[in-house]
Fold this sequence. Notes:
Rossmann fold; 2 domains; ten-stranded mixed sheet
Amino acid sequence: MPIKIQHDLPARTVLEEENVDLIISDQAVRQDIRPLRILLLNLMPKKKETEIQFARLLGNSPMQIELTLMMTASYTPRNTEAGYLRRYYRSLDDVREDYFDAILITGAPVETMPFEDVDYWDELAEIMDWSKTHCFRRLGICWGAQALLYHFHGIAKHRMNDKKFGIFNHRVEENTSRLMKGFTDNFPMPVSRYTENLRKEIEASGSIMVLADSAEAGPGMVRDSINGDLFILNHLEYDADTLAAEYNRDAEAGLATAIPANYYPDNDPGNTPVNYWRPFAFLLITNWIHDLYQDTPFDLTALGRS
């Protein structure tokens, strides 16, 4: 939240130079506050687990968040009961006339497929296009980030020889934005993917800037410098046991997936993993909400008129 100060406070100049968010006293008197409306497009098979992971992070902010759950209508998930989906989830037709501060698009277990071969790609493309006039910003996670980068910026994903799997150190490359406030120079982030986005192609797009990069896993977090859309190519939202569940699932399926790097204590799957990336997950989403709050219009219907 911004700090309320007197308009002539001498410290104002220094604070503004450091990008500290301020609200001047006479502005505060006139300020209206409303909940931030977040649309969560949940493409993960285990809907309930994913809801909890993101609601936990979104709920860490002092801002009031109004969360709406969304799914695609053209694909019926097999891992969540139909009654639950009918009761709690909305489709594009249900929200088509609504407006949101942001849409959050999760990952999906389809990353090795060409985008156009995904069953619900046409619907997802329609949702992404709709979001440009009904959602102030977009936040993509893993495949959701890749889909947004591909659809709006033409940035391709590339298949790797082996699955990049584990906890990898990421270096902060842009530390002046609100999003990276409070981050240490290096921080851990869970990675679980078979594809990658190349830094040279990201930078060649023109407007996309790299916020965090890993020497081992490549770009981990990038942002559109024009509209503020955020693309997190990895999984800060993961619970402590999420990679373990994926590792055990792959092993049961007969896949030659290596033990997730830097994850199990002493690299022993018999040991219980520790979630040492969670503080950065809370910090990032709190910063993202703060950044969104500063920029989003009070009257969201203005999005449809712009």
